[in-house]
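Sequence in, structure out.
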Amino acid sequence: MRLATWNIEWFNSLFDDAGRLFEDGEWSSRHDVTRQDQTAAITAVMRALDADAIMIIEAPDHNGRRSTVRALEGFARAKGLRTRRALLGFANDTQQEIALLYDPDVLTASHDPIGEETGKKGSTGAPRFDGVFRIDLDIDAAEDLVRFSKPPLEVLLTTRLGQTLRLIGVHLKSKAPYGASTPADVMRMAIANRRKQLAQAVWLRARIVGHLAAKEALIVMGDLNDGPGLDEYEGLFGRSSVEVVLGEGQEAQLYDPHARSALGQKIGALHSTSRFYMNHEGRYMQALLDYIMVSPDLLAMGPSWRIWHPFDDPACYGDAALRDALLMASDHFPVTLDMDLGS
């Protein structure tokens, strides 16, 4: 079985309100890329991945006028993809949904949210991801109310052989300090937003602990938009959200080889899943943001991870068409997990 996670930048902009592809020569929301070319690039990459299921981060929007499922299934149908069934969990208002696109001949999938529903007052522990989490963020003896701007997608996945897996698709994100007018405002807002992201990681970790305690096969996959040494605020809080989600110390832990490699060194070569152009420096920055974390029982099966980086993966680099498609489709690159679940 092959599972993938991929953050597809501005995927939403390729569809009209009816879920139809524009697929024309007009500019996409990606710099210097037409809608037609980005659509072709996404299609080429998905065909190359040949995954049984893809967790799509920044999937097309879902609201009163637009439908994520309609857009994704229409896309798959138009392009002849075998991953032709789409699943959405709790929608959000950021135009960046989390959705699963999968092959119904190989898998069945359902949205299976865990945890209690909350009102505006929220609850502690691990409430449902569309609720409110109460936690003291700044150790002032007063609880803060935390919400997910992009509620994680909880999936119950069943194979043709009846084996079940739990997937949690995530997109944790610390908002930019919009509206800040002074350096002091920038720092204050950045710290507050990073604190909220860490609280979301704590919430997610509480759910993970419950699944691990129940001995359930679990995969957490997506864009954590954070990692060891990524910014200066990690020192302030002592750890990244990646470390929180993986688990620390003597507690049961998830495993991702790229995350563990990054955690084990302070300097040197690092894996990368994204590439961003920095206007103020006139160059590209690379970062490890996308992960597939597995529970101990799945790790024991000897799974294989791959980052489809056009410059770091020899097979991707050697295929000029795939290399160009990866660069054109998004500023993130897919991560895949291959494993043999046996009979």
